[in-house]
Design goal:
The chain has 13 helices and 10 strands. Strand 6 (168-169) and strand 7 form a beta hairpin. It has one domain: TIM Barrel, CATH 3.20.20. Helix content is 47%, strand content 12%. Strands 8-5-4-3-2-1-10-9 form an 8-stranded parallel β-sheet, sandwiched between helices. Strands 6-7 form a two-stranded antiparallel ribbon. With 344 residues, the protein is an alpha/beta fold. The termini are close together.
């Protein structure tokens, strides 16, 4: 079963931590982007993560409804079926869920997994993200504890965030006026996160080290990966090597390879990739439209070219372009060739 079971997903995290690599976590919003991710993971013999945001759920449910829960369930079920064709493990995650919508987004999705488990079926999701980083840390941890308990009861890993990722990504906005110090999680913050959550269940942690959602010109984003090293050291010094965090790198698009690789040495096991894959999806479509202008349009009373304006023609190119960019992410994160499918 290529969609990981809870035990297989935990084994994926353990393997990445031990092996010094990370999984690309690819934001998808439709069948074509899901297929692009699955193709890339299989081609690279890399396990990976497919994730859906609240915005993707609204989009997938249709323009008349914008039902983020129904849309995400549909995307997840589709992935379960499509993944059966492949021989790598894929985990499903939901991306940034803000605290004010947790009860109407995360809670119903966790309940959907509970229903599946009651029937002896695999979890719908292996991982959910609660992004309460907009709250003071104490309030962040209080709601994170609440949802980690629900997740732990259902074999789900919870991803949390402390500190603020700058920029904007599908409704998750740090904003241009975010105080500079909020872009960097402190060792004290990391200790507080560990102490609040470790007794409850397994979680991953999106600590911030200057990372920003979106894509910027070189030099615009000031990453400080050593922030992760310092935070890990503080936690390990107090609680031992077993306390090392499974860290998540948000805002990874456009990062320098040496910075990406440095974070792997500090415990990053997952890196979100969205902006770069969006461009890799759209660029071949733009190229196709320019080259087939008189085919996709009925110019000057002509009839156009059905083979050109058939959406499959340009969406196949988009799928290939996105898959190639995801394959590069696997290489960058050193996950290529390291699938544990069949071993757990």
């Amino acid at each position: 079963m290529p969609v990981a079971t809870p035990k297989q997903f935990e084994a994926m995290l353990d393997a990445a931590q031990k092996g010094g690599y990370a999984y690309p976590a690819i934001n998808c919003s439709n069948l074509v982007t899901i297929n692009a991710a699955l193709k890339a993971f299989a081609d690279q013999k890399s396990d990976g993560i497919i994730q859906f945001s609240t915005g993707a759920g609204q989009f997938a449910s249709g323009l008349n409804h914008k039902n983020m829960v129904l849309g995400v369930i549909a995307l997840a079920e589709l992935t379960h079926r499509l993944a059966e064709q492949y021989d790598v493990l894929v985990a499903l995650n939901t991306d940034h869920c803000r605290p004010q919508v947790a009860s109407t987004f995360l809670a119903p999705l966790i309940e959907e997994t509970a229903k599946r488990r009651a029937k002896g079926e695999n979890n719908l999701f292996q991982n959910h993200m609660l992004d309460a980083s907009e709250l003071p840390l104490a309030e962040n941890m209080a709601i994170s504890q609440e949802y980690l308990k629900l997740c732990a009861e259902n074999g789900i890993v919870l991803e949390v965030e402390a500190g603020v990722v700058g920029g904007e990504e599908d409704g998750a906005a740090g904003g241009e006026d975010t105080p500079h110090d909020k872009l960097y999680t402190t060792p004290e913050d990391m200790l507080a996160v560990y102490e609040a959550l470790h007794p409850i269940g397994r979680f991953t942690f999106a600590a911030t080290f200057g990372n920003v959602h979106g894509h910027y010109k070189p030099g615009a984003v000031k990453l400080k990966p050593e922030i992760l090293k310092q935070g890990q050291a503080a936690v390990v010094a107090k609680y031992g090597a077993a306390a090392e965090f499974d860290l998540v790198f948000h805002g990874g698009s456009g990062s320098l390879l040496e910075e990406i690789r440095e974070t792997l040495g500090y415990g990053v096991v997952k890196m979100n990739v969205d902006t770069d894959t969006q461009y890799a999806f759209t660029r071949p479509i733009a190229d196709f439209m320019f080259k087939n202008y008189d085919g996709v349009l009925k110019v000057d009373g002509e009839i156009g070219n059905k083979k050109a304006y058939d959406p499959r023609a340009y969406l196949k190119a988009a799928e290939q372009g996105m898959a190639e960019r995801i394959a590069l992410a696997c290489d960058d994160l050193l996950s290529t060739g390291k699938s544990i499918a069949g071993q757990v």
